[in-house]
Amino acid sequence: MSSREQIGAVVLAAGQSTRMGQPKQLLQLADRPLLEHTLSALRAAKVSEIVVVLGFAAAAIRERIGLEGVKVVVNESYEAGMGTSLGIGLSALDPRTAAALVVLADQPFVGSHTLDQIIERYQQSGAPIVIPIYQGFRGNPVLLDRSVFPEVINLKADIGCRAIFADHRDGIVLVAVDDIGILLDIDNQDDFAKAKQYRQGGHGHGPANIDLRGRAFPERDEANRERENLVIVGSEPVAIALAKIARLLGYRVTVVDPLLPASSLPEADEILHVLDLSRISKAPARNVVIASRGRFDEEAIEQAFAAGCSYVALVANPKRAQDVRRHLEENGHAAAKLATLRAPAGLDIGASSPEEIALSILAEMVAGKRKNDTGNRTTEN
Fold this sequence. Notes:
By secondary structure, the protein is an alpha/beta fold. The protein contains twelve helices and 16 strands.
């Protein structure tokens, strides 16, 4: 793979920012709007061309953002979702472009050195897809070879690059980066408040003040070590509610999330900032619930399968659960193993709030445990 091949970048900045309540591309972060931070990193990276896809609030963004040297295209169908923006952006690249970074406009902390690292890995491997990982967690931006552009261009509705990953599982290359910015995006006001705290004195491209030391469980305590373990991957509201209720029921609670501060969830016995379920306690029974809003679903499920966990569940809507099952099946997981995955997680009790969903999951765990206990006693008799 020649290092002289052109590498482009497509910046997806057409979204409506419904959860934010205002165009997040224009949110003032330190000394400039959010989108300008993203563009600054790209201008300092080894990309030959930058295409920015606008849609919602396009006129206001053009007026306030410095777009010199950037090719701007407008997605008039932005309400149809990310898939349409991806297609328009990739189609607008120079025909000589060999590959492109697909960059989210709301990720202002990704450093130019990280972008170059992704590009260099592509140039070394020639892989159709290159994905950065931090501490085992997949992030963005993703780099796509031109050979997969047609598949992405044909995507519809609110579907991202992940939709084609299952068809290229043997061609995906992961590159480990020392940049937590690949995991940090800004979807709502809470995310934005955290981003302002992360910003380093108004300059640079890295988050600050993130306590990544984790909190380990005192394994020397024999009584605690023998408690049944519940591992929760993610820090979404359902995950937090689950940790709190599970502690009341006597479970040993481990939370796995790259950004959860060690002091923020006292109900957790331990907090891990690395997605490596081989590190979890060798308790008599281990249960894993993934509540990561789609960020780490497949990786966490596969690790839970490998660890032989007694209960593995995914918090997701039925469509997302079906997509995950299909991905796992295409990755070679047997039907018998997939049948043990609880997705969507929990008993069907009409739950809607995070607390009710957490209750339904714990009820399913307890019901399964009691059923197994009864079966074991019957076999012994």
